[in-house]
Amino acid sequence: MTARFFHTPPIRDAEWITLNSDTSHHAAQVLRLKPGDAVTLFDGTGGEFSGRLEQISKSGCQVRIERHLPVERESPLMIELAQAVCANEKMDWIIQKAIEQGATRIQPLITRRTLIRLTGERADKREQHWQKIIIAACEQCGRNQIPLLLPLMPLSHWLEQKLAEKYKNDNPAGHDIMLSPAAHQRLVELSPPRTGECLTLLTGPEGGFTGEETDAAHLAGFIPVRLGNRILRTESAALAAIAAAQTLWGDY
User: Fold this and answer.
1) Tens digits of per-residue pLDDT, 174-232?
2) Which of 11, 42, 91, 122 could form a disulfide with 144 if both were Cys (CB 3.0 to 4.6 A apart)?
3) What is the DSSP code (8-state) at residue 150?
4) 3-class DSSP state of 57
5) DSSP state at residue 188
6) In the structure, what pLDDT confidence band is assigned to residue 7 with cuts at 50, 70 and 90?
7) How far is CA 251 from CA 29, 45, 93, 95, 247, in A?
8) Going by C-beta distance under 8 Å and a sequence separation of 6 or more, which residues neighbour residue 28?
């Protein structure tokens, strides 16, 4: 499989690109690529570029762009994963696998039972870390569009925004789903999202939502849905829900 790399500035046909230091290190020291090896670059603006690694030096790897390929691998189903922040490795895993499965937006949330408290500089660093995970996941799975990482915020504020958007757009029902082991309705029993409508999946932390948070989500129009008869861990529930939604309405 040809190595794929994300490059921030817009890429144009028939030009030379110098990869940044982190990407150059990954290409030369981790993947052990050599001059002459084929590579694929993408910049998030659409499609990808075939190229060839021409030079490896301390200043960075140089790639000669050969041509633009109008290739997209996005699912027809838009999915926003609203995930309560959980332990570091679990959160990284959820974001990585959600992107591989086609999620288009990631909304990290702070809830009452969130074990990790992120504020100020620490929150900024964690968001930068998550952004790198999203890009790496796109490099691995072949996506050329970079999913949006939304700013970290408290669940209560986010639900207020969702409720305001519903009334503004005169769409009180929507396709907003809260995963809950106590729910009676299953995903397969819901009507398919309309064309262009985003499916929002709200997943709680390790300890689940509090009663007040559950009530607030109901008030904001979220539909409680269960995934089978078993209680799943938060990192399992989010990914199982995305896979099920892609099977029902997406490209699985």
Assistant:
1) 589 999 999 999 999 999 998 888 999 999 998 899 999 999 999 999 999 999 999 99
2) 42
3) P
4) strand
5) G
6) very high
7) 36, 22, 22, 19, 7
8) 56, 61
Instruction: Give the DSSP letter of residue 149.
Output: E
Q: Which two tokens stand for residue 215?
A: 């009530």
Nearest to 54 by CA among 84, 19, 87: 19
pLDDT at residue 30, as a whole number: 93
Which is more confidently placed, 171 or 244? 244
Sign of CA dihedral 112, 113, 114, 118: positive
Using CA atoms, how far apart are residues 17 and 204, in angstroms rounded to an integer?
42
CA distance 218 to 220: 5
pLDDT at 1 over 90: no
Residues 6+ apart with CB under 8 A from 62: 16, 17, 18, 19, 53, 54, 55, 56
3-state secondary structure of 38: strand
pTM: predicted TM-score of the whole model, two decimal places: 0.93
- The whole-angstrom separation of Cα 223 and Cα 166 is 14
d(CA 110, CA 205): 9
Structure tokens at 202: 């709200």
- Alpha helices of the chain — where are they, by DSSP H? 21-25, 88-100, 120-141, 155-168, 211-219, 234-249
Nearest alpha-carbon partner for 6 in 39, 30, 41:
41
Amino acid residing at 118:
L
